[in-house]
Amino acid sequence: KYQPTFSAEDHAVCEQTMRRHKAPQNQVYRAKLALLLAEHPAVDNVTAGGRVGKHPNWVRYWRRIWTVEGFRLTDRGGQGRKPAFPPTAGRAGQGAGLRVADAA
Question: Which residue ranges are recorded for the region named Disordered (predicted)?
Answer without folding.
Answer: 76-104
